[in-house]
């Protein structure tokens, strides 16, 4: 399956097919790369300590701030391929 991933859209569609939970770190990394690829640099205020999920998502997106959309897409594809390969 990993070799079938050729485009960003293929990678996005492949994520729900993962059979093993990749863990929070991997999911947050994918989230940040997806947001960077589709929306650009992070916007808005960082959520407060009472919203730990929102804060973690914001931080994951902010971690890739300045990355071009093309590079974010390439990194996203590479991470999805690695996750799919790890399931074999």
Give the secondary structure arrangement, pairings included:
Blueprint: H1 8-14, H2 24-39, H3 52-62, H4 69-86
Helix pairs in contact: 1-4, 2-3, 2-4
How is this structure best described in words?
- The protein is mostly helical.
- It has a single domain (2-86), classed as Up-down Bundle (Acyl-CoA Binding Protein).
- It contains four helices and no strands.
Give a short synopsis of this structure:
The protein has four helices and no strands.
Number of β-strand runs: 0
The helical percent reads 55-70%
CA-atom Rg in angstroms: 13 Å
Q: What is the string of SSEs from the N terminus onward? A: HHHH
**What summary fits the major beta sheet?**
none
CATH architecture: Up-down Bundle
The CATH topology turns out to be Acyl-CoA Binding Protein
End-to-end distance = 10 Å
Structural class: mainly alpha
Number of helices: 4
Average pLDDT number: 94
Relative strand content: under 5%
Low-confidence stretches: none
CATH class: Mainly Alpha
The shape, in one word, is flat
User: How many domain regions?
Assistant: 1
List keywords for this structure.
88 residues; mainly alpha; 4 helices
């Amino acid at each position: 399956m990993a070799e079938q991933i050729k485009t960003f859209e293929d990678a996005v569609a492949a994520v729900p097919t993962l059979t093993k939970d990749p863990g929070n770190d991997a999911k947050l990394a994918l989230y940040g790369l997806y947001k960077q690829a589709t929306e650009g640099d992070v916007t808005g205020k960082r959520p407060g300590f009472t919203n730990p999920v929102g804060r973690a998502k914001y931080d994951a997106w902010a971690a890739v701030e300045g990355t071009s959309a093309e590079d974010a897409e390439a990194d996203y594809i590479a991470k999805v391929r690695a996750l799919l390969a790890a399931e074999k």
